[in-house]
Amino acid sequence: MAATQTTGGIASPRSPYARRTTTRGNYELYSWVFMRASGVLLLVLIFGHLFVNLMVGEGVKAIDFAFVGGKWSSPFWQVWDLLMLWLAMFHGTNGVRTIINDYAQRDATRGILKALLYLAFTVVVVLGTLVIFTFDPCPANAPADLLPSICSAS
């Protein structure tokens, strides 16, 4: 009697289990662990962000262009917001990738959806990073009537 008996290409239910070999390695395991770790770190980053923006100082009434300009003039807050952006985008993209893998039945559909997802991820991360690091509330040679009150008139 053979180790695995097949009937029409389907293995017999009583045949020994043969582990399938995959070329993906432990990618899905690492993805699962990343989701848990990034979720915890995102909680810290988001609640820290909310606490500073809503509880410290005058609260939500103080949030305006000058508040953001003053906050992003500090490298600490630039890195904080950058980490929050990148982690949120990686976390969300990984979650949507998992949903696409679970529910898209055809390979072509799955490929198109993932390509659109990765394109959206790239655009948001690149533009968000550029905004955080190139934001200047007081651009040189700007008309004085267009500058916010935090800029010194020179």
From TrEMBL:
<dbReference type="GO" id="GO:0009055">
    <property type="term" value="F:electron transfer activity"/>
</dbReference>
<keyword id="KW-0479">Metal-binding</keyword>
<dbReference type="GO" id="GO:0017004">
    <property type="term" value="P:cytochrome complex assembly"/>
</dbReference>
<keyword id="KW-0997">Cell inner membrane</keyword>
<keyword id="KW-1003">Cell membrane</keyword>
<comment type="pathway">
    <text>Carbohydrate metabolism; tricarboxylic acid cycle.</text>
</comment>
<keyword id="KW-0816">Tricarboxylic acid cycle</keyword>
<keyword id="KW-0812">Transmembrane</keyword>
<dbReference type="InterPro" id="IPR014312">
    <property type="entry name" value="Succ_DH_anchor"/>
</dbReference>
<feature type="transmembrane region" description="Helical">
    <location>
        <begin position="76"/>
        <end position="94"/>
    </location>
</feature>
<keyword id="KW-0813">Transport</keyword>
<keyword id="KW-0249">Electron transport</keyword>
<feature type="transmembrane region" description="Helical">
    <location>
        <begin position="29"/>
        <end position="56"/>
    </location>
</feature>
<protein>
    <recommendedName>
        <fullName>Succinate dehydrogenase hydrophobic membrane anchor subunit</fullName>
    </recommendedName>
</protein>
<dbReference type="InterPro" id="IPR000701">
    <property type="entry name" value="SuccDH_FuR_B_TM-su"/>
</dbReference>
<dbReference type="GO" id="GO:0046872">
    <property type="term" value="F:metal ion binding"/>
</dbReference>
<dbReference type="Pfam" id="PF01127">
    <property type="entry name" value="Sdh_cyt"/>
</dbReference>
<comment type="function">
    <text>Membrane-anchoring subunit of succinate dehydrogenase (SDH).</text>
</comment>
<dbReference type="GO" id="GO:0006099">
    <property type="term" value="P:tricarboxylic acid cycle"/>
</dbReference>
<keyword id="KW-0472">Membrane</keyword>
<feature type="transmembrane region" description="Helical">
    <location>
        <begin position="115"/>
        <end position="135"/>
    </location>
</feature>
<keyword id="KW-0349">Heme</keyword>
<dbReference type="InterPro" id="IPR034804">
    <property type="entry name" value="SQR/QFR_C/D"/>
</dbReference>
<dbReference type="GO" id="GO:0020037">
    <property type="term" value="F:heme binding"/>
</dbReference>
<keyword id="KW-0408">Iron</keyword>
<keyword id="KW-1133">Transmembrane helix</keyword>
<dbReference type="GO" id="GO:0005886">
    <property type="term" value="C:plasma membrane"/>
</dbReference>
